[in-house]
Amino acid sequence: MKSVKAAALVVCGTLFFSTASMAQEQEAQSLEQLLDFVKQGQVVESRENRQREQRFVQAKNEQAQLLREAEAERTRQENRSSELEATFEENELLVTAKRAQLRERLGGLAELFGHLTSVSGDLSSNLELSLTSAQYSGRQEFLEELIAKMSGTERLPSIAEIERVWFELQREMIESGKVVTFNTEISRPSGEKVEQRVTRVGLFNVVSEEGKYLQYVPSKDTLEELARQPSGPYMGWAEDLVAATGETGFQKFGIDPTGPTGGSYLAAMINSPTLEERWHQGGQIGYAITAVGIFAFLLAIWRLIVLTSVSSKVNSQLKSDSASTNNPLGRVLKVHEDNPGMDTETLELKLSEAILKETPKLETGLTLLKIIAAVAPLMGLLGTVTGMIITFQAITIFGAGDPKAMAGGISGALITTVLGLLVAIPTVLLHTVVNGRAKRIIHLLNEQSTGIIAEHTEGNLRK
């Protein structure tokens, strides 16, 4: 009871204060007017409370209606799910029966369609890389659609589709042995696309009207000009083939035997460095070896020319009765002519002195050629060791995951050894030839000197 009284007092106090505030806002002029204001406030609050209760009851009724509708929808969906499950089971049984009926009716055709699917798949793989796809487009799309169609069980290939597979097989076989020309769009290494007349040699190669080798890119379905063309006579043969199109007879041409499988041989050949590129791989040491080799060659040629001229003059001196000072033999004979009455020992010494004066002139450059022949392989070995060090440093940093890069580094390192041997071997041969010429002349001088001494001694004895 105390709590009820307390609550009543709180409510009365609240009403009093609200009524007092309302009265204060309306500025009551007397106690009767204040009492009237309090009465009006009670009436207003009572009306608002009834409206609030009506809204609560209405919202409750609406929620109850939504709940009944949701329960009804759930019941309907459960019933529909049961119906669909029953229908699915019936359809599954029907599909199984239809498949069994289809297999029974197909009979031997199932094996035929299996072979047809296999052949179509192999043909599609071959046509993906075939050069004929640059001329005849749309074949792969047809084969892929046919394979997808035969992979299902609800559709069968038509007679026309089967005949087209046979036709494409026959056409690919016939085109592999033909040299044909046709117009198509090609892409240059710069990215420019131009319309040109190209020549296809079977399934092996395609060349442009400019004699440039082309490659077929299946992903883009286009022909692209190789950024790096094969070296040697192949480019000239390609130009001759393009110029001879339409003529009968035979024409020399370099074909890629791996063309039907993607042209791996041509790619490997054009990626192989040329002689100039291999020479540049030798680096600074390779350039030094080349310079030394050129110097040795020029020196040997110069000495050969000089010794050939001297040998010719010596041969002329042998046929002459008077000594001439334009050749070594003449200068040696001149010593005897100038000293006819000299004793034998002195004359022998004079002739030996003359021969010793002529020998360095005849052997000029021989020592240098011998040194170059010995040093060139050592320079090549130095370049190889240096290149191997660089290669192994690269392997240490980047690893040995790419065998091609490692093989390329080792190959470049060995170039200097090859250059050293290429310089040393000809230098040895040239040194042998030049030394033989010089020794022949020196031997002739010694022979003539010995003859002169013998004649001089014989003459003195007769006296």
Automatic annotation (TrEMBL):
It holds the Pfam family MotA_ExbB. One of its GO terms (cellular component) is plasma membrane. InterPro entries: ExbB/TolQ_transport (IPR050790), MotA/TolQ/ExbB-rel (IPR017270), MotA_ExbB_proton_chnl (IPR002898). Keywords: Cell membrane, Coiled coil, Membrane, Protein transport, Signal, Transmembrane, Transmembrane helix, Transport. It is a multi-pass membrane protein. It is found in: Cell membrane; Membrane. The chain crosses the membrane at residues 285-306, 371-398, 410-434. The keyword Protein transport applies. Its main location: membrane. Residues 326-445 form the MotA/TolQ/ExbB proton channel domain. Residues 49-92 form a coiled coil. GO terms for biological process: protein import. Belongs to the exbB/tolQ family. This is Energy transducer TonB. It comes from Kineobactrum sediminis. The lineage of its organism: Bacteria, Pseudomonadati, Pseudomonadota, Gammaproteobacteria, Cellvibrionales.
